[in-house]
Structure formats: structure tokens, C-alpha cells
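Hey L., structure's done. Input below.
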Amino acid sequence: MVVVAGYKIKSPHYRLLVPYKKGRGLTGLKNLGNTCYMNSILQCLSNSTFLTEYFTEGLFRQHLNGNNKTQGRIAEEVAAVIVTLWTGKYKCIASKNLRYVVGQYERQFGGIEQQDSHEFLTILMDWLHSDLQTVSMKIETSLDQLPPSEKAWVEYLKGKESYVSQLFYGQIKSTVKCRRCGKESATYESFSNLSLELPNDANRCHLNDCLEMYFHGEDIRGWNCPQCKDNQVAIKKLDISRLPSILVIHFKRFYADPDAISTVYKKKQNYVKFPLTEFDMSAHIAPSEINRNLRLRNRRYHLYGVSNHYGSMESGHYTAFCKNSIHQIWYKFDDHMVSSLDVSDVCSSAAYILFYSMLPEQPQVDMQIR
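Output:
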């Protein structure tokens, strides 16, 4: 039994290995048999400064939800891993207990076969949100008097939020407009990450190209217009109605080969250029939301994490590039190995998931949600 920052950790589950002197947040994660996809995501989350402080300071404990499917167990295990990663004492640890727990709820994550890091991240974020969703939202008016986007947000969260939803969750506005009469209909959908297509006709592109493809309107036929009372051609347009403090962007690199007789997946190897600082999403915010919430205009993101994928879907490997908030240096996390990384190498054709934050590099305010 080992005690780390108040946690009693059983050594068979979190095996603490060679002492390490380089500093906090520079501990690797042992590959437990094709768990590089999990290690990559955990290192990116570990370098999400505000989330890490929330776990290492123990603030999450007062928000644990014991009445949901996972009964707070996922949040406790993720916290235990992140706390140990930031002691600065160990070269690497083996997160066996976390893999065991997540495998109880999603069997594929408990085995030794390679999995998709994006799928793992999406499910993990929903688990963490549910495990910590105990804070009642303050609503100063009736639900029907709220703006449509706010009403949809409260309904999605069912009146209770979590620190995870405050940090990572945003909202998309989908507007369908009749080309004949101009009648509009809007719906809202929450997200913890955006999945972007890559262009088929370009080996190199910019993140802005992918965003333009995502937010560019498209014609839909046969839309039943409530004003024309007939099927019409309409344009469907997506916009951001709520920007998250931490924006996670996923590139759709894998696709089913349309020429294959059976289902065969191929990978797009596009080199995507993306900004490391001053990333501006204001062009994609719904006009109605900018007018209602002017502070969205000035929000700029900085990159702090990248989950990379090398190879094919059948035989691949995941790593993470993360900027350490203490040293302000980029590092490469390749399972148990951690090494410094030149900033010029952060952008590569292996980039799979990007982690952007508009928050300060270090927490400067009380993080306790109320």
C-alpha cells in the first residue's frame, strides 16, 4: 500500500517504478498491452491545468455522484492517476486499476486490443461528467423565458452541471432555412469535442479549412417547411452557440474504403497546420449568440495537447504531445517514455485530436464550482 497525496494506492494496480527527478507532470504511463490509446488521452487530460488542479486539490470529492451508473468510480480512478502523475517522483506508473474499472462498463477498454483514442475520450468525458454532475444550476427565471440556446443547455444538463461540463462542453446551433420563404427552424446540440472532416483533394491543409467545411451550409431537399406547408429546398447551417473553455477538436482520419468488397478502413495522412496560440473561433459563433454575449468575441485559444496516431487502423500507435504548465515546454509522451519536444515538431501528419484552452496557463481563481 502506497499513499500519494492522500490516496491509498495498491501497488499491484498502480505500480510505481523508477524514481524520477525531472519534475511534476513528467511521469510516463506503462503500456499494459495496446493501451497506448488510453495513455495518450490520459496525458492530454493530465495537462489540462484546471482539471488537474481540481483533482489534485481534492475538490472533486465534494461533487462525487454515487447514484449514477458508474457511481463516481471513474472520476476517482482518473483522479488517482493524475495525482500520481503530478507528484514528480516516478518515471512511470501502470494504471491497471483504471483500465479494470473502465473495462467493467465498456468491455473493449478492459482488453488488450487496440482501441480508438477518440472513442475512448468521448465516453470517458461523459463518464466524468456524470460522476461529478451534482451541482444545481442557478436559473433566475422560468425555463420558458430563457433564450432558446440557454433553455436547451439547461434541459441537456437536466438542471445539474459538473466541473467537466463547465470546462469541456459546448453547444452547436443547427439552423434550417427555407430557400423559398426564408422560414427558419433551429435546434441545439451539446458536444464535448468537434469531429472535423479532412479534405480529400489536399495532402496539406489548415485547421481553418476543416472548420470551413464543417460550418459551411449545405442544401437539403424535401424539407417540410411549416410556413409553406410543403416540401422545399432549404439550407442547413451549423454555428457555435456556446464556446467551451477547453475546445477539443478531432480529425476524422479513418474512413471505410468504398471500393473494398468487405469493410476495410483506410487512413487519411493529411498534414494539418494548426495554430499554437491566438486561435480564433469567433467567425463560427452564431450571430444571435454574439449579440447576446459579447464576451465571446474576444476569446482566443492556445494549444496545450495533441493526441497523435501513427500507422494504420489495424496496426497503429498513439502518443501525446503536451505543454507542461510549470516548465512551459512541450514534451512527448510515448507510453512510459517522456522526452522534451521542439515546438516546431508539434504539428505533424499524425495529429489526431487537438486540445485548446482559453483559460490562463495556471489557475488564478477559485475553481470550486457553486
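The first strand starts at residue 2 and ends at 4. Residues 117-131 form the longest helix (15 residues).

-- N.
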